Amino acid sequence: MTFPEWQQLPPAEAAREVHHRIRTRLAPGQQPAVIAALPDEAALAEVFARVSRGAPLGGVPYFLKDLFPLAGQPMFAGSTFLPEVFPPADQDCAMVRALQDAGGVLAGRTHLHEFAYGITGENPHYGDCEHPRFPGRTTGGSSSGSAAIVAAGIAPLAIGTDTGGSVRLPAAFCELFGFRLTPHDALIADAFPLAPSYDTAGWFTATAGDMKTAITALIGLPASLEAPGGCYLELPGLDPEVAAACREAAATLAPAADATTRDALLAAFSASVDAYNTTVADEAWAIHHPWAERYRERYDPGVWQRLNRVHSLTTAQRSTAQHATATIRNAFKQYFRTFDFLILPASPFAALTKADCTLANRLRILTLTTPASIGGLPVLTIPVALPSGLSTGLQIIIPHPRSPVVSWALSTCPDQLRL
């Protein structure tokens, strides 16, 4: 169901539909893995009844990644102990206030890769998030529960965050549209941080029309450009099926990068993963160090390993990361003097099985996602269906969130680029 279809439902029926879809579209074991908090049907019906149906999102249910604080409610961020460190907030976060002003209905909160420090959607405390249509394969993370909610058709909108690809990868894996904003934006400023230099707010929808409505309601969207200029850059490490699909899908939007542009960007992006991992390690430890040792045994072991990596970093690694960051940002600055957008693949493969959620595959993902993260740039993710029935996606990287390229791309693309 699209935004307009949900908006036609009376409050009690809308609340009943949300609960019915949770029961019937998520396997019993997946419900605790996906959903962090859910109001009962009567309470949810009251929320539907209070919103203005004349607002842009009036009557549209959405789910919220449990990194965004709500007044008086505990926030776990995928952990078991965060409320012991942080008491409940005094007021709702800026994201929820913006959605409330737009008429959105908060239908529940979603789980995530613990503290958003992972990209595979695994969580030993609540369960790994699986792709609703392909059990045994991950949704991707860290916004795993939010992607699952939209992919399962439980709600048409879900809020996530994206530090190193946590909206872009789940969107690609789950055949969704995704949008990430920029670091230090008001809509991310009061969320629980992973690495503030890179943290951004974002969201998922199942259709291009719904994505356009959501962006317009939350940040505003200018009219479309008639013929924006951009190019497609194919990065290394793609599975053959994904490489062919992304190449063909991207050709409907822009040509491949010319040799000079390609070589300049590939050279600039070559150190992006190491630079990203170094900076995130420092910034994440700065957030967690006041309590990390005290709660060491309660962390996801994989997350603890990433946090603990800070102690092995050298001065040389930090200096190299700073240089690579400056190089990448300058490369984007130069690129956007000529072009309006850049297209990159959003995933190197389709949704992974648990066995394939390895360090090597994590690095393959970050090779694609970290350039835009380091650039601090907004990204629209467009789904690309694969012949296998699974999916990947394209990242459309733009210089600012209100770029008219967004309207153009959403108007140009069907709900999926099916080959």
What is the CATH class name?
Alpha Beta
Q: Number of domains in the coordinates?
A: 1
Structural Rg: 20 Å
Strand content: 5-15%
Structural class: alpha+beta
Helix and strand run: HHHEHEHHEEEHEHEEHEHHHHHEHEEH
Strand elements, count? 12
Helical amount: 25-40%
Low-pLDDT stretches are: none
**Biggest sheet features:** 10 strands, mixed
Stated plainly, the CATH topology is called Amidase signature (AS) enzymes
Helix tally equals 16
Q: For the record, give the distance between the C-alpha atoms at the N and C termini, rounded to a whole number.
A: 24 Å
The oligomeric state is single chain
CATH H-level homologous superfamily name: Amidase signature (AS) domain
Average pLDDT for all residues: 96
Looking at the structure, what is the overall shape?
globular
Task: Tell me which CATH architecture applies here.
Answer: Alpha-Beta Complex
Walk me through this protein's architecture.
By secondary structure, the chain is α+β, with helices and mostly antiparallel strands. The chain has a single domain, classed as Amidase signature (AS) enzymes (Alpha-Beta Complex), CATH 3.90.1300.10. The chain has 16 helices and twelve strands. The strands form two sheets. A ten-stranded mixed beta sheet has the order 1-3-2-6-8-7-11-12-10-9, sandwiched between helices. Helix 9 (208-218) runs antiparallel to helix 16. The longest helix has 21 residues, at 315-335.
